[in-house]
Amino acid sequence: MPDVLSAPLVVEFPFTRSLGPVQSAFLTGLRERTVLGVRTDAGTVLVPPVEYDPVTAGELRDLVEVAPTGTVTTWAWNPTPRRDQPLDTPFAWVLVRLDGAGTALLHALDAPGPDAVRTGMRVRIRWAATRTGAITDIACFEPYDGEPGPTEPAPCTGEFADPVTGIAAPARLDYVHTPGRAQSAYIKALEERRTVGERCPACRKVYVPPRGACPTCGVATAEQVEVGPRGTVTTFCVVNIKAKNLDIEVPYVYAHIALDGADLALHGRIAGLPYDQVRMGLRVEPVWTEGARHVDHYRPTGEPDADYDTYKELV
Amino acid sequence: MRDVAIVAFAQSAHRRRTDELSELDLVMPVLHEVLGATGLRANAIGFTCSGSADYLAGRAFSFTMALDGVGAHPPISESHVEMDGAWALYEAWVKIRTGEADTALVYAYGKSSPGRVRDVLTRQLDPYYLAPLWPDSVALAALQAQALIDSGETDEGTLAEIGARSRTAAVDNPYAQLTGDVPAGDHLVHPLRTGDCPPIGDGAAAVVLAAGDTARALCERPAWIRGIDHRIEAHSLGVRDLTDSPSARLAAEHAGAFERPVDTAELHAPFTSQEVVLRKALGLGDEVRVNPSGGALAANPIMAAGLIRLGEAAARIHRGESDRALAHATSGPCLQQNLVAVLEGESAHE
User: What is the value of ipTM here, to two decimals?
Assistant: First the structure.
């Protein structure tokens, strides 16, 4: 087994975001196959539209409709599409100035290869079959050799039935997490049902779980010290709300536990006695479950309670 | 107001992977080195400020863990920016200028190896119109490069020369990740080839700032910050002229960069095409040594690479190899935000 552990780590965010009046009109418009822009104080039509003028910071509300056809202002050929990008076959990223707009919109262009793409080429929107009021309602752009749209945008109220007021923006990022030397050693010792901290070479404090340095002295901790298994409850709380996906009956007690020999309390659940009998100073020991890589909970040892002076520095 | 100088700089060796190191393990040796260079102990530092981004390694609040390496308890005066460390340096500079501290420790780190950095960086984009399309960092830089090619300001050959020059310079930089003869490679996203793109890697850097006589006591030849400013472009890429960087030019103007020529410039241009934009915006001619360290094309630990530009420029002044240097840092897609500092050694005036 290598010295440093690693494990896949997926971070997923189901962001939901509310929209301002201009963004709401634009994204609702996409759902209805209509592209809206907004006119700035200086008269430029911004597509995609924003709520505030990028130059004056003034509030923008003068919506107009532009054409679904336009001109590529710059491009970049993407030979290997990445997950979640608009197309799963090679495509060009493009900035497109739609006919009637003064600024360009970023999207994908479906084209056979880089030789088929150039700045200045004419393109049109390919609409997604299912549209929800999102930038992805534009599936992509495609080459277009028809008539250009009007250069002057058409006035538009931006009012639609059932306007979109928010977007769901799921995001998933994949990592391979490596916790580093100190935490790898801590986790590996847990496999043998041992709790191993690290001692600061300067102040001699023992940190559990170890993070690799002493936050007081700012130096690396390297000397490994086995602590516990018994410890003392330094403080606790009673949990009355059941956590999602957690199969523990409420109320239960969650505590700070100073393991014998440690200079830092760690967290753990207390069980094996009624929740209202847990107290500061209670002596506890870990309970492991088969196959688990961490302590399931702590239970009373039956020893007399610890004297407050023995743990007051750790409260 | 008081003069402020960079009095020490340290950086890690930048590497593609550092699986055996936590972020704390990555940053702590650099902190010790930079403090050791000044003889200051951590608890003698007036203000500590760091720059990093938890999304890179996917580890929430990693910056609070990294603080253990500073010796942050009992509580020190401390701050953090979710930006490149160059912006942390700016915050520390303000603290010292306003008299709230005499010294500051500034550090930054980036551990990109656990994730897929091209995807991770899409999460900093406009969440309504851009992020749902997942346009990765190379794709956005390539759109800017093509705009430069279309405008006749560069071509693929010129871009390749920028990459080659940077990696050749980096041969003398023991901390660099990608040095020497690096092939131009295939198109990653046309028109950018692998050689036009920065290496992905992990690294850390730190500087110490000090005011007036404290700086003179801590460093034989302090690198005085004569001016520093940062500016930002409009958010939407389609609103901008991607072939220019008015924000970099404005920041340079406010930093006093155009008052007298500089002899050296450390530019934070992760993509070759961005050096073309910055040279134009900052008015740098062939007489200026640009990126003698190799720049971000030789080592680009995200969130630290901008601070490293300030550190590299300062270190050249410390060593007497420069009298007046420009240091630049960037953040966001296509040079979205730009910070410019002008650093001087004292003999430049005397």
Answer: 0.94
